[in-house]
């Protein structure tokens, strides 16, 4: 099999990518940085706190609604600190409104997606860290599209702030009105955009006006297994959950399903995960997409059970949401149940992920792919649903 190019794990995007980054936004800066910038613009430092309280505390993203700022000041500061980052293309809802998926167009035309999922006890948002993805996993719609560029810190954070505002509006009936959980499981490989993802996490967990004030334990960072970045994350003094997208317990199959495995094999990836668990005390989530006749054989369940037995880990089996035209399909339910039984018999905590959003192209990258492929209808001007 031909080796595939991989995205650098420990640096920002190369210069060619940085050229298309968006204008600076207050969420790119910590509070001290915002205050310094406001002072440079000839305004008192407390204006930065006012704007930050609106954005993070009240979830106000429209500068014109920040009426406690003088109009002239509001205009000048909004141009420097509150540029529009996410332009709505489509917003779809299903599950009686409990699942809402947004497709955004960025300033350079790149498309990204984010999803809100409401439950009786929590509201979770799934956000993107890159436009596209360079990891080339063949069963993933985003992986099939390739990488466009890394997102800025603010482009990442703004997805969460927008969806937190949707939750606060009461639009998700039967769920609390406050965002509580964020998962970095949207488009992209988070640890390939390491510096900006870490900065975004710090905005999400810092209390207002610095950030959104979420619990670190309610943040999940997914990775296909960029080993140096996993070790680096373990040293960040953060209590976030690491979700390892394993998808196969053996190198032969994982080389195909997760091409980064050509660089870091299963044993090395799991060793990095156990190091993360040991240093943080946090249980690692092992993500495993159940793909019919590919990775769902009983012997693979047994092998996975042996690899994980006695470890601080939990298996999250994911019924595959097939992309249109894909040769991959979800495992039948009896096969899935047998896989679960074998893992639990091995002493491994296992659950099957609740499937959401199939009727609205819920799998990561599907809505963006549909937008890119639609040559007959210009959807960019549609109002959100």
Task: Note the gap between the termini.
Answer: 44 Å
**Total strand segments:** 12
Radius of gyration using CA atoms only: 21 Å
Uncertain segments are 1-19, 373-385
Counting helices, strands and paired strands, the structural category is: alpha/beta
User: What percent of residues adopt helix (DSSP H or I)?
Assistant: 25-40%
Tally of helical runs: 13
Which shape, going by the Cα principal axes? elongated
The biggest beta sheet reads: 10 strands, mixed
What pattern of helices and strands is seen along the backbone?
Answer: HHHHEEEEEHEHEHEHEHHEHEHEH
Estimate what percentage of residues fall within beta strands. Answer: 15-25%
Q: What does the average pLDDT come to?
A: 89
Spatial order of strands in the largest sheet? 1-2-3-4-7-8-9-10-11-12
